[in-house]
Write a structure and sequence with these properties.
MetI-like fold, 291 residues, 2 domains, mainly alpha
């Protein structure tokens, strides 16, 4: 009878099989480690330009030593931030501005998206409405401010009106464009299978127009944010715009710069924490994400 000689370290018939669960765990951990490294690199890459701007700001202040009424050091802005937080002024004004913007966003969605869909479903109506929508998109909400003051006075209604105006028209226009860009063959295919118009809108036009709808929302919220600050400059009554304008009137430049920084940070948070997740979730749900 022949003997089977096994080389040292080789796996024989009687050896235990490789632990596949451990290999799977190692692969999953490696994947998670790669994702964490990717996120960390993305955060670092996003922060680098701000670090460069901060260094430039500090360098200009150190070299030229400008008057405190022109430019202050970054440390002064940090001190102003903590002071305004302790006083409760900044949180209250931030909340007030966000509430105003939120109201405009709700109106923009409730009015703008359905109107855009209705206009886009008919080619002739869409062509007729396009010049009017382009015209009102070109006239910014700030340009309407003097007229709205004459209509509504220095009231909350004036601020709300310019926010709604700047929100609705970009949403209507981009939703209409999104509906018109949906391939007609998809609609015809659904109709040939006996689908009703509500079903066609739900399964064809809603997911097909969604990228343009999100573009309209991003533009509308961005325009509305600027119009909100301008309205708070002029009308007053609280908000970040009033915070900046009031600080400029008092000559407190560090609070002016603080308000500007808060405006930018808030917009980044709205875009990254609200708009982008909604866009990615819905796009993934409707199968429009390509890796």
């Amino acid at each position: 009878m022949e003997r089977v000689i096994e080389a040292p370290g080789s796996v024989g018939l009687g050896s235990q099989p490789t632990d596949s669960k451990q290999i799977t765990r190692d692969l999953i951990e490696e994947h998670h480690r790669g994702e964490r490294n990717k996120r960390a690199f993305g955060i670092l890459r996003a922060l680098l330009p701000f670090a460069a701007l901060l260094a430039l700001w500090l360098g200009i202040h150190t070299i030229f030593d400008p008057s405190p009424t022109k430019l202050v050091a970054p440390s002064k802005v940090v001190d102003a931030f903590f002071e305004s937080i302790q006083e409760g002024v900044l949180p209250a004004y931030i909340l007030q501005s966000l509430q105003r913007l939120g109201f405009g966003v709700i109106i923009g969605i409730v009015v703008g998206i359905p109107v855009g869909w209705l206009l886009g479903l008919d080619k002739d109506i869409a062509k007729a409405a396009e010049p009017t929508l382009r015209f009102f998109n070109a006239v910014s909400g700030i340009a309407w401010l003097p007229l709205m003051i004459s209509w509504f006075g220095f009231t909350e209604r004036t601020i709300s009106s310019i926010i709604i105006y700047t929100m609705v028209f970009p949403v209507v226009f981009n939703t209409m464009v999104g509906v018109r860009t949906v391939p007609p063959v998809l609609r015809d295919a659904m109709r040939s299978m006996g689908a009703s118009w509500p079903r066609i809108i739900k399964d064809v036009y809603v997911p097909g127009s969604f990228p343009s709808v999100m573009t309209g929302l991003r533009l509308g919220i961005g325009f509305g944010w600027r119009a909100l600050i301008a309205g708070e400059f002029v009308i007053g009554g609280g908000g970040l715009g009033f915070f900046i304008f009031d600080a400029r009137t008092a000559g407190v430049i560090e609070r002016v710069m603080l308000g500007m920084i808060v405006l930018g940070v808030l917009w980044l948070m709205i875009d990254r924490l609200v708009l982008r997740p909604v866009e990615e979730y819905t796009a993934t749900k409707w199968g429009m994400v390509r890796q």
